[in-house]
Structure formats: structure tokens, C-alpha cells
Design a protein that fits this description.
This protein is mainly beta. It contains 2 helices and 23 strands. Strands 2-4-6-9-10-11-12-13-14-15-16-19-20-21-22-23 form a 16-stranded antiparallel β-barrel.
């Protein structure tokens, strides 16, 4: 962290103070509805805003302050703490600062950012009171080398994720349990169990054979849940803390010209976690409860309508396999099979220029999720969902 901050500030000492600014603003307003298993939500808004006034000190040094804000009133199913939960509203604000120094075809890009994300599961929740609200403080640095045969990128990031409204129920149970029982089940139990310190290192290789662009990437993220104790086989807590290692591999091939963009993307993820689970109702212990392997395959096409707009379509297939988490029947009885899910997502977008930098846009998405997990008292594993949005985008 100190090393990144040192590079950020020391590299600015010899800057030419005759800086120029290039403003860049995007704003969009959409109205839409969400459907979950045939039931629709009320009509609501989605808002997005991006402001990035680039400050050019000279041809080798530039500063990128960026603000990103959003509000999502159209309901959606999202994964929160390991399962799919219906989210009613979301709102977020992100502030970042990136500095770019270039030397010939080599680049150094330190950055800092802070973001606030608010998640409401019910319409009557006040902003800032959501159980899964979180904020993220991050710092990182990128190195990039452009060569005749390819472009190489290396990166390192540290980010701290904090859930201000979430704490374990056990940490709040001393007043409702007898002293002996509380001591037995609360030993080593943490309070800020979702907070984490994260360390990510990434590598990317980009090649341009003929009229194609090939991108290969590798990211490793170590997640330290410093206040979340590991569950033991009796349902208590060990002194060990949870830690996860996320390995991500990606490959993308793209071909584009003024008329058509074609792309195919493949992503593989492997999460290795030491956290376990104990189902007290059925006295069932499950080892490596959060570990999984999944992959995505996404073909895309975009047809540009001269300078009037564009039409795009994408299809994503995702396969998620939990390594040790057991499937259950409708009554909650465990089987010998491990849980898997299949996600099928179709998305269509039409964008049309109305006037200069003003565009009208319509978006429709349809998702089908199936699983061998039939017990859905806590989370949904099988569902169909769709949403449509229509609105305007302003680019400046």
C-alpha cells in the first residue's frame, strides 16, 4: 500500500503545470420492469452517471479522476453471501483517481478508489440500513508494455471490503441465551464475518494476428476473512480464520470493423475456500462449503447502423459446480450429489441516435436457471427471470 502511494506521489513531482483538461461525461435514464417466474415488479427507473475529466499534464503524464454513480430500481436476482436473493433496489457511488505515466511504449498506472454500495431487499428499507450494504477501499498499480508482437500487462491490487450493517447473530445472542450455552457456541465466533482483506495479482497478454485481437488473462485473488472463524464438525468454531483463493482464467477473441463486431469469450473460475458448514436442524456437517468451479461461454455480435446507432446480441452459458456442497430434496433431506447450476442468459440491445450525442436505447434480457438443488427455503436455485428497459443515453 505504501509502495503504491509512494509511486503515485513521487511520479508527479516533475510535471509540467500547464495542464489541459478533456471532459468526458455519460448519463443514462431507463425505465423498466423485472419478471421472476411469471410475476412482475412495478415499473421503476435505472440511472447511471459517469464523469471522467482527463487532465493532461504533458504527452507523458495524465490524471484520470473518475466518478461513477448508479441507481437500480428494477428488481433483480443477485448472489449475496452464497445464494441468489431478490434485490429490490441498489444504489452506489464510486470515486477513483488514476495516474498514467508513459515512457516510449511502457506505462505505469497507479490508482486509488473508494466506493459505497447500498442494497435494499425490501422497498421500505431506508438507504444506508441494508443488511448487505458495503464499502470498498482499494489501491493498485498496472504495468503495461506495448511491443510489435503483443501487449503485456501486469497488475497488483489491494482492496478492503467492509459491511457496516452486518454482524453474526451469535455475537448478538448473549442476552437471549444462558451463559453456559453462549460460551460454548460463541467461542472463537467473530462479529464482522463478511469483512475481508483482498490481494489480487493479474497478468494479461494481448496479441493482434491479422485482423483479430486475442486476449489471455490470469488473475489470482487471496481473500482474508480476518473475523470469520472456520466451522468445525460439531457446529462450533475453530481458532482458524476463513481464507479463500480465487483463480480466474480468461480467453477472448474479437474481430471488428466499421460495420460488425464479433466476439467470443471464455472464463474459468475456481474458488478454493477452507470454510465449512453445519446444518444444526439435520446435524449435517459439510466440508469446503463455499468451494466451487464454474465457467462462462459468451458469444457476442454487434451490428453498427452507420453513425445512427447499433444492434447487439449476446448469449451466456454458465455452469457452476460446488465441490462439496450437497443437494437437497424439497423437504431438505440431503442426497449424495453435489449442487450444480446452469445459467442461460440472452440479451438484446438496440441503440439509435436521436440528436448529436443523445441516443435512445432499449434492452431486453431473459434468463433461465436450473439446478439439482430442490430445497429453496433460503435461496432460489431454479427460476426464470427477464427484464426490459427503455430510455435515453447522453454522451459528452
Amino acid at each position: 500500500m505504501r509502495y503504491v502511494l509512494g509511486i503515485f506521489f513521487l511520479s508527479m513531482l516533475n510535471l509540467d503545470l500547464r495542464a489541459s483538461m478533456n471532459p468526458n461525461f455519460d448519463f443514462s435514464v431507463f425505465g423498466g420492469k423485472y419478471y421472476l417466474d411469471g410475476e412482475s415488479s412495478s415499473l421503476d427507473l435505472n440511472l447511471n452517471a459517469v464523469a471522467s475529466p482527463v487532465i493532461n499534464f504533458n504527452e507523458n503524464n495524465a490524471l484520470y479522476p473518475v466518478y461513477i454513480g448508479y441507481y437500480t430500481g428494477v428488481e433483480d436476482v443477485q448472489e449475496l453471501v452464497g445464494g441468489d436473493v431478490l434485490v429490490r433496489q441498489r444504489m452506489g457511488h464510486s470515486f477513483s483517481l488514476k495516474y498514467v505515466h508513459s515512457n516510449d511504449f511502457n506505462y505505469i498506472k497507479p490508482r486509488l478508489s473508494y466506493s459505497l454500495d447500498y442494497i435494499n431487499e425490501t422497498k421500505d428499507e431506508s438507504w444506508g440500513d441494508g443488511l448487505f450494504d458495503y464499502n470498498t477501499l482499494s489501491a493498485g498499480i498496472d504495468f503495461e508494455q506495448e511491443r510489435p508482437e503483443a501487449t503485456y500487462r501486469e497488475s497488483f491490487d489491494y482492496f478492503y471490503v467492509h459491511y457496516p450493517n452486518y454482524s453474526s447473530l451469535i455475537s448478538q445472542s448473549e442476552t437471549v441465551l444462558d451463559t453456559t450455552t453462549y460460551k460454548e457456541i460463541s467461542q472463537n465466533a467473530g462479529e464482522d464475518v463478511l469483512d475481508s482483506r483482498n490481494y489480487r495479482v493479474g497478468f494479461e497478454y494481448v496479441k493482434f494476428p491479422r485482423d483479430l485481437m486475442l486476449t489471455y488473462s490470469l488473475n489470482l485473488t487471496y481473500k482474508d476473512y480476518f473475523d470469520q472463524s472456520v466451522v468445525d464438525s460439531l457446529g462450533g468454531f475453530k481458532s482458524d480464520k476463513r481464507n479463500d483463493l480465487l483463480t480466474e482464467l480468461g480467453a477472448r477473441i474479437e474481430k471488428s470493423d466499421k460495420k460488425v463486431y464479433l466476439g467470443m469469450e471464455f472464463d474459468f473460475r475456481w474458488l478454493n475456500s477452507n470454510q465449512n458448514s453445519y446444518d444444526a436442524t439435520r446435524t449435517k456437517y459439510i466440508d469446503d462449503y463455499y468451494s466451487y468451479i464454474n465457467f462462462d461461454l459468451t458469444p457476442r455480435i454487434q451490428i453498427n447502423l452507420n453513425d445512427k446507432g447499433s444492434f447487439s446480441y449476446s448469449f451466456t452459458y454458465t455452469r457452476l459446480n460446488y465441490i462439496e456442497r450437497l443437494a437437497q430434496d424439497v423437504n431438505g433431506n440431503y442426497s449424495g450429489s453435489k449442487i450444480h447450476q446452469n445459467f442461460y442468459i440472452n440479451s438484446i440491445s438496440l441503440k439509435y441516435k436521436v440528436y448529436e450525442n443523445l441516443y435512445a436505447r432499449g434492452i431486453y434480457s431473459y434468463q433461465v436457471v436450473d439446478s439439482n438443488m430442490n430445497y429453496e427455503a433460503g435461496y432460489k436455485y431454479d427460476y426464470k427471470s427477464s427484464n426490459f428497459m427503455a430510455g435515453v443515453e447522453w454522451e459528452f
